[in-house]
Amino acid sequence: MGNATITEVAPGVGEVRLGPLAERHQAALDDLVARYGRADHPDFLPRAPFAADVLPDDLAAALAAMRYRESPSVLVVRGGPVAEPAVPTPVHWRERPAAATVRQDFWLALVASRLGDPVCWSTLQGGRLFHDILPIAGEEHEQTGHGSADVLEFHVEDGFCDHRCDALALLCVRDRDGVASLVAAVDALDLGELDLEVLFEPRFLIRPDPEHLRGVDPASVPVPPRPVLFGDPAAPYLRVDPAYTDPLPGDERAARALEDLCARLAGAMVALPMSPGDLLLVDNYRAVHGRAAFRARYDGTDRWLRKVTVVRDLRRTGRRAEDDTRVLEPFAAVRG
Ligand SMILES: [Fe+2]
How far is it, in rounded angstroms, from Cα 116 to Cα 278? Predict the structure, then answer.
């Protein structure tokens, strides 16, 4: 059912606009809700890529291109078959009603399943597979999914960790204020203008963000020097998280190279406001993402996204929590 149209909105950034909410999709979501109840059900997750056969052909083709050709690096899927729910935006991820976004989560899981297997961290949101991105009172200035008043600086997700996701998926549940997600793809860079030699060398210290470090002694977490670009010099992968990255002490050439790379990424940033049902997919090796600043109201109408991260190979994700194959331990090595 080729009812989707794909357009390039910026270098490396594609958009698919789905046709009118197809009955077929609604029925598929109804069926999944009835059969599994929740999208993180262990029986559903391995079947998700097959259940995704219901997706429109054009969308499936765009997802396959993103995964196998690594182009586009970012894909916005607009007009998914989920409307803004009646339930208000929770005041905290811990306070969310259990079934508040069941249909959203299944849609998110179906689309994201074509890019990889969902995983999460033991250190974030209680080890839940699907996360709430929503403003939390008192955390306005945090550089996390719960801040609001400041721009969320662009970054590669979990750049500190070798087992970070291959892609992340963000579904808009509610956004009445047009708060833009920000993305920039490596495709937008003129590589000839960068100090590639330095950026490809392990001359940068990438620290974990404070959310991961709750309950962990930061001194116990090793921060080895890393490159911020890697892979094919003609089409590099990014490991860029400027808010948590320092060049090695005294390495002024590395400092300049990183500053220049970040300035160019900032210049390439694309603003993507999203409406309920819109879904943003970001290749975490080929693009950075962030968020515009906004004023949170905490009255149940604030911006609310659901998020899941996926990996292409679950086997290579390091040690996992004891009884759940999807929950990763970011500091397994240091915790013994
Ligand atoms: Fe992020």
Answer: 19
DSSP, collapsed to helix, strand or coil, labels residue 315 as helix
CA 22 to ligand 1 center in whole angstroms: 31
Q: What is this structure's pTM?
A: 0.95
Tokens of 280: 């943003």
| Peptide bond between residue 72 and the one before it cis (omega within 30 degrees of 0) | yes
38 Cα to the center of ligand 1, angstroms: 24
pLDDT digits (tens, 9 = 90+) for 289-300: 999 999 999 999
Q: Is 104 exposed, middle or buried (0-12, 13-18, 19+ CB in 10 A)?
A: buried
Domain annotation for the chain: domains and CATH numbers: 5-184+272-331 (3.60.130.10)
d(C-alpha 133, C-alpha 308), whole Å: 10
Whole-angstrom distance, CA of residue 280 vs CA of residue 175: 14
Question: Cα(183) to centroid of ligand 1, in Å?
Answer: 10
SS3 300: coil
With vertex at residue 330, the alpha carbon angle to CA 93 and CA 181, rounded to the nearest 5 degrees, is 50
Length of the chain: 336
b/e sequence 63-87, b meaning 16+ C-beta within 10 Å = beebbeebbbbbbbbbbbbbebbee
Q: How far is the CA of 20 from the centre of ligand 1 (A)?
A: 30
Q: Which of 76, 105, 110, 80 is nearest to 20 (CA)?
A: 80
Structure confidence by residue, pLDDT tens digits, 82-115? 999 999 999 999 999 888 999 999 999 999 999 9
- Give whole-number Cα distances, 291 to 234, 259, 300, 305, in Å: 28, 20, 20, 12
Neighbours of 213 (CB within 10 A): 16
